[in-house]
From TrEMBL:
This is Heme oxygenase. GO terms for molecular function: heme oxygenase (decyclizing) activity. Pfam families: Heme_oxygenase. Coiled coil: none annotated. It comes from Deinococcus hopiensis KR-140.
C-alpha cells in the first residue's frame, strides 16, 4: 500500500525535520515561535500555491487542507510581521513536476498535522498559545485530524499513478522543510 511505503521511505527525513523544530523545547520563547511560523510560511505557501495548479482529484479534499492562511492568521494574532513571499534569505521551494509529486507534497503537509496535535498542547502550556490565538496552524483540523488523515490515506491508496513520483515529491518536500528550518528569513 502506498501510504505504508511512504511512511517507511521517508522515516529518516521525518526524524531530520522533527529535530530541526524547536517547538517542544521547554524554553521556547514567543520570538522563537514567531520565527518558526515565518520559516514555515516560506515553505508552505509556495508549495500550496503549486498544489492549487495541479489536477488533484476531489477525493483528496485539497481546499480543506490548505494551511498557509492559518500561518498568516497566527502571525497577525501575535502582531508579527507577515513576510511577503519570497523573502530575502529564504530558500526557494522546490518545483513540483506533476500530480504524483504533488500528492507526495500533500502527504507531507497533511502528515504534519499529526505532530501538530502534540505540539498544540505544548504551545498552550509553554506560551498560552491556543487555536484561536496564534496556534491555528498546529491545531490544524483539531478533533477532525484523525478522520482527515484516514480520508487522505484512503484516497492515496486508491490512486493508480506512479508511486515513486509520490515518494520523490514527499522527499523533496521534507527537504524543503529542512532547508526552510535551517534558513534565516529576513
Ligand atoms: C516537533 C516536530 C514534530 C513532531 C513532534 C512530529 C510528530 C509526529 C507524530 C507523533 C506522528 C504520528 C506518527 C504515527 O502515528 O505513526 C507524525 C507523523 C507524521 N509527521 Fe510529524 N512531527 C513533527 C514534525 C513534522 C514536520 C515538520 C513534518 C512535515 C514537514 C511532519 C510530517 C509527518 C508525516 C508526513 C507524518 C505521517 C507519517 C505516516 O505516514 O504515518 N512532521 N509526526
Amino acid at each position: 500500500m502506498l501510504m505504508a511505503h511512504l511512511k517507511q521511505a521517508t522515516r529518516e527525513r521525518h526524524a531530520e525535520v522533527e529535530a530541526l523544530m524547536p517547538v517542544l523545547d521547554p524554553a521556547l520563547t514567543q520570538a522563537a515561535y514567531i520565527r518558526l511560523l515565518r520559516q514555515l510560511l516560506g515553505v508552505v505557501a509556495p508549495l500550496e500555491a503549486q498544489l492549487l495548479e495541479l489536477p488533484i482529484p476531489a477525493a483528496f479534499g485539497l481546499e480543506h487542507r490548505l494551511r498557509a492562511p492559518l500561518l498568516v492568521r497566527d502571525l497577525i494574532a501575535l502582531s508579527a510581521p507577515t513576510p511577503v513571499w519570497p523573502t530575502r534569505g529564504m530558500p526557494a521551494a522546490p518545483r513540483l513536476s506533476g500530480l504524483g509529486q504533488g500528492l507526495g507534497t500533500l502527504y507531507v503537509l497533511e502528515g504534519s498535522t499529526l505532530g501538530g496535535q502534540v505540539i498544540g498542547r505544548h504551545l498552550r502550556v509553554a506560551l498560552d498559545i491556543t487555536a484561536e490565538w496564534g496556534g491555528a496552524y498546529f491545531h490544524a483540523h483539531g478533533e477532525g485530524t484523525g478522520a482527515m488523515w484516514r480520508a487522505f490515506g484512503e484516497a492515496l491508496n486508491l490512486w493508480e499513478g506512479d508511486a515513486e513520483e509520490v515518494v520523490a515529491g514527499a522527499n523533496l518536500t521534507f527537504g524543503a522543510f529542512a532547508d526552510a528550518l535551517r534558513g534565516v528569513p529576513a
